[in-house]
Amino acid sequence: MPDDAFLEAAREVWQAMAERNPDAARARLNALAATVRDDRERNIVRSLDQLLTHLEEFWRAFAQGVARLEGGEEFAIGDTYIIVVDSTPQELTIRAAGQNRTYLIRDIPDILVRLIVRRTFGTDPQTQSIYAAYLAVDPKGDPAQARRIWESAQRQGVDTRWLLEALKLLPADAAGATPSANNRVPDENARTAAASAIAQELASDIQAASTREQQVRLARMLVDRGRKEADNARAYAALMMGRDWAVRAGDPSTAFAAVEATARRFAVDEWNLKVAVAGELIKSTRSREGLQQLVDSVMAAVRKAKSAGRNNEASQLARIALDAARRTSNAALVRQLMVDLNKLQVVPGRP
Fold first, then answer.
1. Number of domains, the chain
2. Residue 53 lies in a domain
3. Mind listing the pLDDT tens digit for each residue in 323-332?
């Protein structure tokens, strides 16, 4: 029977998949495979490998599906319509409730992931089996639905037995769990060493980052690296470096993406971090266009904070959004912002 250390390592593979980080999951699975001692452990590795392979294919297919979306396409979520503004294999920009929001592919909210899958994925059992891998592992997924899809595919001749076996490894708290809960923030020495190593590896990119465009590119590179890192210290350092470069560039979407990626992996307070980042962004943003983008991004954070029951942080973020709107000297933007906040029942906090 597998010992506790082996099972804990298997759970870490699942955790990386739940964090939408298949690269880290693959590295952890390879390390786990090297420790196999008997057939039972070998079967655990095999089932996780099948699940991860399907998940890797899902994210590739999903990115391609996002890239095929056309500007102006609409998705309905209840009474709200979401309009596609721009799409690439790396990110998606939408407009909802009068606000533009940009998401990196692996930061797209679950409800929108499902709508995009419905529009861009085939309904054949092989394709649906790939989608089921996402449903099985994502914190807001549906393992029960994944099981139904795989059982149906099995009846249609698709071999899904190892995928069904993988569901037996589903952590007890997986449904709706926050995957970051098991990852402590690395200690200061580890973070400092990791940041120094990454800075040396990217020395030429850092030295060249003199324009806003170059700084945004560097920030996104660091956030992407942080997501893919298997080592926790390097992951944390890269995400924080990406956040800081995004703040310096006045790029709110990437700065908030860095915070969200950090919160998915580590035991940090996402909302306090977002308030801090928004406070730094309003100091570094000067242009009217940049301030309008900041309003959009911060208001998206206000809605999420309100939905999460973090009313104090929603109020603090609302104050920053209002300050940014006023700095644009756009009275219509300020009026619309106040209407939106009133609908959300959020009162801006005091400066």
1. 1
2. no
3. 999 999 999 9
